[in-house]
Write a structure and sequence with these properties.
Elements: H1 7-16, H2 28-42, E1 48-57, H3 59-62, E2 78-81, E3 87-89, H4 107-118, E4 122-128, H5 151-169, E5 171-181, H6 184-191, H7 197-215, E6 221-224, H8 235-250, E7 254-258, H9 264-267, H10 278-293
Parallel strand pairs: 1-4, 1-5, 2-4, 5-6, 6-7
Antiparallel strand pairs: 2-3
Amino acid sequence: STAALATDDIDILAKSGSQIDYDVTLTAAEALVNYNAQKSKYGLGILGEIDLFLAAGQSNAVGSSGTPSTITPNSSKAKLYGEYGNIESITDPMFMGARYGSSGSMWPSFADSYITSTGRTVGIVGYADGGVAQSSLADSGAGNWDATGSLYGDAVAQLNTAITRFRNLGYTVNVRGMLWSQGEQDAISVLNSVIVAQDYTDALTAMMVRFRAEYGATFPLHMVRTGIRTGQADTGGQAIRDAQDAYVAGDANSYMATTDTVNFPTWGWMADTVHYNQTGNDYCGDKLADSAASLL
C-alpha cells in the first residue's frame, strides 16, 4: 500500500460505512482485513438494520407521471440501490434496474410513509420496465416475468447484488418483500383474445413460487391492483383485476395494498390513458407503505 491508516481512522470508516479509496490508502486485501476486524469489533450491522424491498412490475412501477414527486424522504434513512451499485437517495427520477424513470414515481412517497410509520431505515431495489407482461403469451416484445423471460432472473441478480452491497457497507439486511405494480399489458392481451385470465394467474403464481424458493416461503407480495386504461373497453382490465383479487385472497403472504386505481380516471389522477399522475403515484406509495409496515 502507499500508506497505512491509523486504527482510529479505520474505526471511523467502519462506523460511517464510508468506502476506502484503495489507491490512496490501502490495497484491497489490506482494507478488507482492516474492515473485517472493525466489523468484528463493533458487531455485525454496524450501521444498523435496513428493510430492503424489491420494487417491480411495468411502467407504473417505473413511474411515468410527468412530474417528479415533491416528497423528500429522510436521506439518512431512505436508500436506493442505484446504477453501477451506487447508494443513492430516494428521489425522482429513480433507477429501476432496467432504466431510469422519466419523471415521478411511487417510491419517494413509499419511503417517506414507511419511515414515518416505523422509524426504520428502508432500501429500495428497483426492477421494472414499460410494456412488460406477466405471462410470456402476452409478451409483445418488451419482455415478461414468466419462466421464459429474463426479468425475473435479472431482478433476482439485482436484489442479491444489493443485499451484498448493503451488508458490505455495514447494514444488517432484512429482505421485506416485493412492491408490485403490473398487469396492464396482460389486460390488453385479454381484451385482444391473445390470452385468458388463467394464463396471467398461472404466470403470477409460478413467479411467486420462484421468488419464494429464493427468499423464503413467506416472502411477501404487496400489490397495487391494475387500474383502468381509458379510451377502450375495460373487459381485459376487469379480468386481470379479478385474477389479482383471487390470487391475493388465496395466498397467505400476498397483500392488496390498494384497489383504488380504478377510481383514478374519475378522480383526475391519470397522466395519460394508462399511467398514474403524481398524486396517484404518491397515493399508491403511501398505501404500499401501510401494507408493508403492517407486517412488522
